[in-house]
Amino acid sequence: MNKIFCIIGKSSSGKDSVMNELIKDEELSGIKSVITCTTRPKRKNETQGKEYYFLTEEEYQKLKNENKIIEERNYNTVQGLWRYFLADTNQFDFEKNSYIIVETLEGFMALKKAFGVDKIYGIYIFVEDDIRLLRAIEREKKQENPDYKELCRRFLADCEDFSKEKLKEAKINVKIENISLQDTVNAVKSDILKIMSK
């Protein structure tokens, strides 16, 4: 049965790096990547249509008015309201494909509600907080206008968003510690191939 594989993790856990490696893997070429949308500003190293579709607030409102938002999260950041969302653009055909997407815990749960529990498979990538914070600082240093205030807000919000209670409630299928990127990619790939072969 085809599924949506959700790569879930806190900020700077390595989930985007894992996703980027997986979508390049020949053995997983039958899985289509799903790109979500955001109204936040594009970072220096990001590309439109790769990490996200960077849309304006007006574009978001148009999709919302057309009832095309499958799931969304809104964050009041130090730079204002940022939206992250998945729009229904008829991109899902479970008869033909499985899909892979980077999601938040809330997004994962919304997808289970929208498509059904049997169609969604959650893979939680985690890293110790000290390593995660150092990664986040290094990434932020590379930005044209580093925003350490926002980095701290995200880090603290993750503690609440990924509490033990919320992780338990979400019923994520598998949890993988990201000590080494290649080992993590291999573990996620192995898990996906095992599920797809059932």
Automatic annotation (TrEMBL):
<dbReference type="Pfam" id="PF00625">
    <property type="entry name" value="Guanylate_kin"/>
</dbReference>
<dbReference type="InterPro" id="IPR027417">
    <property type="entry name" value="P-loop_NTPase"/>
</dbReference>
<dbReference type="InterPro" id="IPR008145">
    <property type="entry name" value="GK/Ca_channel_bsu"/>
</dbReference>
<dbReference type="InterPro" id="IPR020590">
    <property type="entry name" value="Guanylate_kinase_CS"/>
</dbReference>
<dbReference type="InterPro" id="IPR008144">
    <property type="entry name" value="Guanylate_kin-like_dom"/>
</dbReference>
<feature type="domain" description="Guanylate kinase-like">
    <location>
        <begin position="2"/>
        <end position="193"/>
    </location>
</feature>
<keyword id="KW-0808">Transferase</keyword>
<keyword id="KW-0418">Kinase</keyword>
<protein>
    <submittedName>
        <fullName>Guanylate kinase</fullName>
    </submittedName>
</protein>
<dbReference type="GO" id="GO:0016301">
    <property type="term" value="F:kinase activity"/>
</dbReference>
